[in-house]
Amino acid sequence: MPDIVYEIIDVLASILRLVGMAAFGVGIGYLAVDLLRKSQAWPLQMAVFLGLAGLMIAMVVFLSWGALGAFGIGVAVAIFVWGMPKKKKEGEE
């Protein structure tokens, strides 16, 4: 009986880890896009890019593949949502 309870807790913890890493990925992705837009100097843009790449490389060592995938999906969603150029409406000139 206790084995079933531990398995249920393990599944719930894995789901919570995936959701948390996806939310963390969205937050980091939004921060990276915002910093890249606001920065005017190329060294700062390079530092943001290398920091994001370094974070993902470090996560390969310390996270499970599912959590890393959820983080990557979160970053990709943030880049596609906030990183794409905004279309002008037809009424604006």
SSE diagram, text form:
Layout: H1 2-38, H2 42-62, H3 65-83
Helix pairs in contact: 1-2, 1-3
Can you describe what's shown?
The protein has 93 residues and is mostly helical. It has helices spanning 2-38, 42-62, 65-83. It has 3 helices and no strands. 83% of the residues lie in helices and 0% in strands. It has one domain (2-83).
Task: Explain briefly what this protein structure is.
With 93 residues, the chain is an all-alpha fold. The protein is built from three helices and no strands. The N and C termini lie far apart (68 Å).
Structural domain tally: 1
Uncertain segments are none
Q: Residue-averaged pLDDT, rounded? A: 89
Question: How large, in whole angstroms, is the Cα Rg?
Answer: 18 Å
Strand content: under 5%
CA-to-CA gap between the ends?
A: 68 Å
**Helical/strand content category:** mainly alpha
The shape, in one word, is: elongated
Number of DSSP helical runs:
3
Secondary structure: helix percent: over 70%
Biggest sheet record:
none
Order of helices and strands: HHH
How many beta-strand elements? Answer: 0
